[in-house]
């Protein structure tokens, strides 16, 4: 099935270039030139992925991202900006963006990023026909990767796509120490120019959601000077 990409970009030349290259790559494309229209289209059409500019008229990209996540819409989001500002980058990711690109970028790079993000959030045909389902259960925490579901004390938890992917990767490598660079490479699929704060932000969000006490985590342990480990609680 053809995937639909929503491009929310107020610079007409960039929006047109993105639309052309995405369509050439086989995607359906929806366009919006301000934040409010982009939000409305996202809610109405539920695209498979959004390319969302940070600086927009009527409502900026941060507000659009925040509103979508508050509506519990787990559309993968790649944020676009002309500013290579660490604060903007971390803020966007804190609010639920799944990737981040700084202008200028090449059409080839955009297509590669879009395909990489879609691969992470689209089950393969082999996965869809599996009869067995992977389940992780540790005390009060239950995680069902194929269903994009997790429960703590039998209450459903809400995650952004990136948070859930990170959680599953930690579970797949339980009791192993994973460096921040390893997590950047494996979960984000490329190096964020050494910006390991992105990992720390997402780990903090996971702890807030899956730990009974995020200040004294039972599951996700910090290994000082190295990284993180999902530790299977002792029975």
UniProtKB/TrEMBL annotation:
<dbReference type="InterPro" id="IPR001789">
    <property type="entry name" value="Sig_transdc_resp-reg_receiver"/>
</dbReference>
<keyword id="KW-0597">Phosphoprotein</keyword>
<dbReference type="GO" id="GO:0000976">
    <property type="term" value="F:transcription cis-regulatory region binding"/>
</dbReference>
<feature type="modified residue" description="4-aspartylphosphate">
    <location>
        <position position="53"/>
    </location>
</feature>
<dbReference type="GO" id="GO:0006355">
    <property type="term" value="P:regulation of DNA-templated transcription"/>
</dbReference>
<dbReference type="Pfam" id="PF00486">
    <property type="entry name" value="Trans_reg_C"/>
</dbReference>
<feature type="domain" description="OmpR/PhoB-type">
    <location>
        <begin position="133"/>
        <end position="232"/>
    </location>
</feature>
<protein>
    <submittedName>
        <fullName>Response regulator transcription factor</fullName>
    </submittedName>
</protein>
<keyword id="KW-0805">Transcription regulation</keyword>
<dbReference type="GO" id="GO:0032993">
    <property type="term" value="C:protein-DNA complex"/>
</dbReference>
<dbReference type="InterPro" id="IPR016032">
    <property type="entry name" value="Sig_transdc_resp-reg_C-effctor"/>
</dbReference>
<feature type="domain" description="Response regulatory">
    <location>
        <begin position="4"/>
        <end position="118"/>
    </location>
</feature>
<feature type="DNA-binding region" description="OmpR/PhoB-type">
    <location>
        <begin position="133"/>
        <end position="232"/>
    </location>
</feature>
<dbReference type="InterPro" id="IPR011006">
    <property type="entry name" value="CheY-like_superfamily"/>
</dbReference>
<dbReference type="GO" id="GO:0000156">
    <property type="term" value="F:phosphorelay response regulator activity"/>
</dbReference>
<keyword id="KW-0238">DNA-binding</keyword>
<dbReference type="InterPro" id="IPR039420">
    <property type="entry name" value="WalR-like"/>
</dbReference>
<dbReference type="GO" id="GO:0005829">
    <property type="term" value="C:cytosol"/>
</dbReference>
<keyword id="KW-0804">Transcription</keyword>
<keyword id="KW-0902">Two-component regulatory system</keyword>
<dbReference type="InterPro" id="IPR036388">
    <property type="entry name" value="WH-like_DNA-bd_sf"/>
</dbReference>
<dbReference type="InterPro" id="IPR001867">
    <property type="entry name" value="OmpR/PhoB-type_DNA-bd"/>
</dbReference>
<dbReference type="Pfam" id="PF00072">
    <property type="entry name" value="Response_reg"/>
</dbReference>
């Amino acid at each position: 099935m053809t995937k639909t990409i929503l491009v929310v970009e107020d610079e007409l030349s960039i929006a047109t270039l993105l639309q052309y290259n995405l369509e050439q790559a086989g995607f359906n494309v929806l366009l919006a030139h301000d934040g409010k229209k982009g939000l409305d289209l996202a809610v109405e059409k539920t695209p498979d992925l959004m390319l969302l500019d940070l600086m927009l008229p009527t409502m900026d990209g941060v507000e659009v991202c925040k509103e979508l996540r508050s509506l519990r819409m787990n559309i993968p989001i790649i944020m676009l900006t002309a500013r290579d500002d660490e604060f903007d980058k971390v803020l966007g990711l804190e609010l639920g963006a799944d990737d981040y690109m700084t202008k200028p970028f090449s059409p080839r790079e955009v297509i590669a990023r879009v395909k990489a993000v879609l691969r992470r959030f689209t089950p393969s045909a082999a996965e869809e026909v599996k009869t067995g389902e992977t389940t992780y259960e540790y005390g009060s925490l239950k995680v069902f990767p194929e269903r994009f579901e997790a429960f703590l004390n039998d209450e459903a938890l809400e995650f952004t796509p990136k948070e859930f992917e990170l959680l599953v990767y930690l579970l797949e490598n339980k009791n192993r120490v994973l460096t921040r660079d390893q997590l950047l490479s494996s979960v984000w699929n490329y190096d964020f120019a050494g910006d390991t704060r992105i990992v720390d932000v997402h780990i903090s969000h996971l702890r807030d959601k899956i730990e009974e006490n995020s200040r004294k985590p039972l599951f996700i342990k910090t290994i000082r000077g190295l990284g993180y480990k999902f530790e299977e609680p002792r029975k």
